[in-house]
Amino acid sequence: MNKPLILVVEDDKPIRKLITTTLETQGYKYHTAETGEASILEAVSNQPDLMILDLGLPDMDGVDIIRKVRSWSNLPIIVVSARSEDRDKIDALDAGADDYLTKPFSVEELLARLRVSLRRIRYDSEKLQKDASVFTNGSLKIDYAAGCVWMGQEEIHLTPIEYKLLCLLAKNAGKVLTHNYILREIWGSLTYDVPALRVFMATLRKKIEKPQSAQSKIIQTHIGVGYRMLQSGEDIKSG
């Protein structure tokens, strides 16, 4: 199988070299861009499978690049940025980024995030080729047609809101969803606030995750940002 093509958008030469060397040692193909304009040209002309994007480029803010790409493509975008404030992360994720890593970062975590995004690409592709009425992720199974949820052999009884939350996370497995995104998708507005969302999420997790068992963790909390459904076998430390 051909390795995916990764577009690395980074104007800092040492960091760009670190990322590309890491990709090269793992056998990934890559192209690079040092400006926002060049990144959009690369994305259009070479159609990479994934973009690793720095937000602080000399000619364009990275959030604007995300919005431009999202206007015509679902290309997975992993942000790697020195901006560490929750507001920056939320802006990037709300604009359409799939993930956010703060500099300095470990190459092991970058590769882990990369694998998660690429698995989601494969899952989305396979989903188009087969009946998507049943979602499975490890021991979790959601039968959308029947409206039933199973953990292994045990059927889990969820409230309507808990079920909607679980389905939203499942349909975006591996992707960070911000609090505001979830509130809009579930309730259609921001009528409910983040503390209320945390309560619903806590009751959901209590039903589908075994207490004090890291292996049973399904939902990852990104403090101050939102939530992500972990994919089976994912090796990112969970919150």
From TrEMBL:
SUPFAM superfamilies: CheY-like. It holds the Pfam family Trans_reg_C. The keyword Transferase does not apply. Keywords: Cytoplasm, DNA-binding, Phosphoprotein, Transcription, Transcription regulation, Two-component regulatory system. One of its GO terms (cellular component) is protein-DNA complex. GO terms for biological process: positive regulation of DNA-templated transcription. Residues 132-231 form the OmpR/PhoB-type domain. Residues 5-118 form the Response regulatory domain. The keyword Coiled coil does not apply. Its main location: cytoplasm. InterPro entries: CheY-like_superfamily, OmpR/PhoB-type_DNA-bd, Sig_transdc_resp-reg_receiver, WalR-like, WH-like_DNA-bd_sf. It comes from the Bacteria. GO terms for molecular function: cis-regulatory region sequence-specific DNA binding; identical protein binding; phosphorelay response regulator activity. Residues 132-231 bind DNA. The modification 4-aspartylphosphate is found at D54. Gene3D superfamilies: 3.40.50.2300, 6.10.250.690, Winged helix-like DNA-binding domain superfamily/Winged helix DNA-binding domain. It is found in: Cytoplasm. This is Two-component system, OmpR family, KDP operon response regulator KdpE. It comes from Paenibacillus typhae.
